Please model this.
Amino acid sequence: MQHRPVESKKVNGDMAQSRYQFDRAFSRSTATSSEQQITILKETVVVTCQKFISHFDGCEEHHIHNFTIEEYLDFIERQRLTYMPHKGSHWDKVLKWAEFFGLQISSFANAMEKLILDSKPAAKLIWTACRALLQLGPENAYAFETTFAEFYKVGLSIAFLLRRNSLLTASEHLRSEVGKFFDNLLVLVRDVSLFYRQNLLGGSHETAFDFNGVFGRQRSGIILCKNNIVNAMWEHILGPQGSTHVHTVRKWLQPSDRSLQKFLIEDEAAVSRREEFTCEWFQSHLLAFTRSQDKVLSLQGSAGCGKSVLAGWIVERLQRPLGRKVYDTISCTIGTFGSVSQCPSCCGGL
Model:
């Protein structure tokens, strides 16, 4: 696929016909009628399809319609066979994250098919966007590392939601927020793919962009929806009073220093970069620990020797299957919140 300019007159003239065809091809309800489904994705799917056809050379509607997760994974495998990236290299990480993200999107679309109209078409468009980025090649791996790290983090959020799938339809508010989450995600991936292809194919010499600076609005929309979903889950399980207790505990866990709060928020928005192959040597030690009977793995070292970098790598590695096992991870920085004696009384009831 190559970037090509498209006359706006032709795009506008084809819009109505494309909308009709796309609606006929994709907007069909399954066992649940369309009146009962969340329809927020419908307009975004049509607009996104039109944009991709206009800006991605060789991309036609039937290509998107027939695109499957198997074809997407096969494309990534061919990328590996073609370029043979070294384990831990920038391109290796990009391909790993792209594969994980695509699989989570597939699972999410399958789970939401009866809840959200056009879930499957949205997934196909997301795979199309990711493939269009990867087709720009490993020479752009450094730029894409930030992008697919963000997609990877969204994939982790999707995996978390899917493990609690039964709660996603527990209330009208939850169903609505799940629909908004998917819609915001499609918009983010669409905007990212169009931005990068335009800049990289347009002869830009930039190798990386400030992801949060360019896509902060779209990213914030996804985070807001995710938080709303989690809060609604707590309220459904614990009731209004219990969810208030959860808010109290969260507030207590936050650092009291406002400067530190600001730093942690900015740090969350930034995607950590490690040099190629950094920390890969530790995988054998981590695998040995997970297979042992030990309960604690302690890493010690002088200030500045890389403990935090290694800890971040361990958390990231455990979020993917290790030794055919899947682990849940919790990151906590000791000393950033109040003492145990100040713990809210409601903690005991959660």
